């Protein structure tokens, strides 16, 4: 596994044994974490993918990063929407750079995000669905920005996982995402687990089986 800096973003690159044009899964960590977090799950997900775990651009503290600034207020989490839009554009540019360098199957990537990384995954999917094979959103929430045309995401697969006892982004956030996506996409899988703000072991198993079906489809 190599750590690299590609233009503006640092990432870990975990390549499969073969093939060279293997589908890519981009991993987007949550607020206050780093690129070393989700990459630990890679051996339990799907062996035929290249995993690129991306470090968010904003430094919060030593080893702690965020995709865009947040404020934790008595009434909830406040978002810097200007910074969020800048992060979206920066990440989309990064995807284009990765596609140009690695030339993966289908010239697209999978996204798997946790918490704020899930929000980033949604934002990317809603604005540039043609770049993606599918989205895995763990313990996240839908962004305020929604696609201008619902048909643009209709054929994009989504897997949404959430903890019933999540005290950071409550289960209502996951259920709202499920309800909204259910009316707009053909391929949606949603699952809840009796956990807090984390990914359940059973959730990892579901991600594995979800990828077992969709990773081969990405090669077609």
Write structural notes for this entry.
The protein is an alpha/beta fold and 220 residues long. It has a single domain (2-218), classed as Alpha/Beta hydrolase fold, catalytic domain (Rossmann fold, 3-Layer(aba) Sandwich), CATH 3.40.50. The chain is built from four helices and twelve strands. It has helices at 81-102, 116-127, 171-182, 201-218, and strands spanning 2-6, 9-14, 24-28, 50-54, 58-61, 64-66, 70-73, 76-79, 109-114, 132-138, 158-163, 188-193. The strands form three sheets. It has an eight-stranded mixed sheet, with helices on both faces. It has a two-stranded antiparallel ribbon with strand order 5-6. Strand 7 and strand 8 (76-79) form a beta hairpin. The longest helix has 22 residues, at 81-102. The protein is globular, with a radius of gyration of 16 Å. The model has no long low-confidence stretch (mean pLDDT 91).
CATH class: Alpha Beta
- Helical stretch tally: 4
CATH architecture term: 3-Layer(aba) Sandwich
Percentage of residues in helical conformation: 25-40%
The helix-and-strand class reads: alpha/beta
Hey, roughly how much beta strand do the residues contain?
Answer: 25-35%
Shape: globular
Major sheet: arrangement of strands:
1-2-4-3-9-10-11-12
**Corresponding CATH superfamily:** Alpha/Beta hydrolase fold, catalytic domain
Q: Per CATH, what is the topology?
A: Rossmann fold
Low-confidence residue ranges: none
- Largest pleated sheet: 8 strands, mixed
């Amino acid at each position: 596994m190599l750590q690299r800096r590609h233009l503006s973003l640092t990432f870990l690159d975990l390549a499969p044994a073969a093939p060279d044009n293997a589908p890519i899964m981009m991993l987007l960590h949550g607020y206050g974490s780093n690129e070393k977090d989700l990459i630990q799950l890679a051996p339990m997900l799907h062996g035929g993918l290249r995993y690129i775990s991306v470090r968010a651009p904003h430094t919060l503290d030593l080893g702690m990063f965020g995709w865009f600034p947040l404020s934790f207020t008595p009434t909830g989490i406040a978002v810097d929407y200007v910074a969020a839009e800048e992060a979206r554009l920066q990440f989309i540019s990064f995807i284009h750079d990765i596609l140009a360098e690695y030339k993966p199957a289908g010239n697209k990537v999978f996204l798997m995000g946790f918490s704020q990384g899930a929000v980033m995954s949604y934002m990317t999917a809603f604005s540039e669905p043609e770049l993606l094979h599918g989205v895995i959103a763990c313990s996240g929430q839908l962004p305020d920005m929604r696609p201008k045309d619902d048909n643009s995401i209709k054929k994009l697969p989504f897997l949404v996982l959430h903890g019933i006892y999540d005290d950071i982004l409550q289960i209502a956030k996951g259920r709202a995402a499920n309800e909204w996506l259910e009316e707009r996409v053909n391929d949606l899988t949603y699952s809840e687990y009796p956990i807090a703000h984390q990914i359940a072991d059973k959730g990892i198993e579901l991600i594995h089986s979800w990828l077992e079906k969709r990773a081969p489809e990405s090669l077609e």
